Amino acid sequence: DKGGYKHFMAKEIAEQPGVIGSALDHYLSDAGIEMPGLDFAVCDRLVMVACGTASYACMVAKYWFEQLAGLPVEVDIASEFRYREPPLSPASWSVFVSQSGETADTLAALRYTKEKVAKVVSVVNVSTSSIARESDVALPILAGVEVSVASTKGFTCQLTVLALMALKAAVDRGRMDADQLAAHLAHLRNLPGLMNHALLLGNDVARIAADLAEAQDILFLGRGPMYPLALEGALKLKEISYIHAEGYASGELKHGPIALIDQHVPVVVLAPRDALYEKTVSNMQEVMARHGKVLLISDAEGVHEAGAGVWRSLTLPRIEPWLAPVLYALPAQMLAYHTAIAKGTDVDQPRNLAKSVTVE
Ligand code: F6R
Known about the structure:
- Helix 6 links the parallel strand 6 (119-124) and strand 7.
- The strands form three sheets. Strands 4-3-5-6-7 form a five-stranded parallel beta sheet, sandwiched between helices. Strands 9-8-10-11-12 form a five-stranded parallel beta sheet, with helices on both faces.
- By secondary structure, the protein is α/β, with parallel strands linked by helices.
- Helix content is 46%, strand content 16%.
- Fructose -6-phosphate binds at residues 51-54, 98-100, 103, 106, 150-151, 235-236, 239, 356-357.
- Keywords: Aminotransferase, Cytoplasm, Glutamine amidotransferase, Repeat, Transferase.
- The active site is at residue 355.
- This is Glutamine--fructose-6-phosphate aminotransferase [isomerizing].
- It catalyses: D-fructose 6-phosphate + L-glutamine = D-glucosamine 6-phosphate + L-glutamate.
């Protein structure tokens, strides 16, 4: 049931404030973050493995675990990890992120780590899935059924649970006191409200998408935890609109991809006002100097400060920088959705793709 929406993807995008609120309610109590069986004090490293969008959630989480909890994290895509058969420290934990819980490569990677690490943890939507059943600890993301092949609420619910894990790791490892935790949790609690604001951008996004639909190639740029979001924005766009898109870390631009820029190439710049904002803006100006068509996504101050001369901009509410990837996922998803609509492609069931990839 599409609940009055034209596509499951639109419905699932709109559901995000609600499901994220429920996920927070599930894991939070007066005592703090409830994740039985996870004491991060005894773990020396996380090895996170997933495919596609779920692997980008892992890449965002790497910044969080490292910065908030001082916990080293390795991220790999499952199809590479399983055959590389990397050595693993016995005090490390492996973490598998999967919406379906049935992705063949992710499951094989999980089985590879089983006797080699101290704990196998999964972050899944389908609690009865193989990946959930074969883990020592399975954390549900509580997104509800995701029908659209392109993952939306699955991604942001994965990020929400991973953010809670990173905060728990910070507390367990003595990196965060009760006041700091309360402040971070308050920021998480603000997410659903901020997402509701982001959803109001639908008409603006649709107008921009009408032009994006004409493009042959589109680049997405971001730094820090916005770099994996650039990868996610590009994946979502190519999946459902079939336009060639690539995400890059802004700092990599001058190491090659800037050669692609001309007046025909739209460049989506994901630039929340974080510690790296000035650097991202300076990369954006390099794109503009080569006549690239910049779509700047930032908050009001960010757009005010750097928006002169950009092709288009989208203004989001201000957010604590560490959580920006969760909020900025929404305009990225909406851009993909509206561009696909403008192109007339099959949004919920894109060609060549399956919702659950149970063969390698
Ligand atoms: C992209 C997408 C895929 C999945 C990937 C992993 O929108 O949906 O990239 O994220 O196939 O699937 P799960 O999370 O079920 O393991």
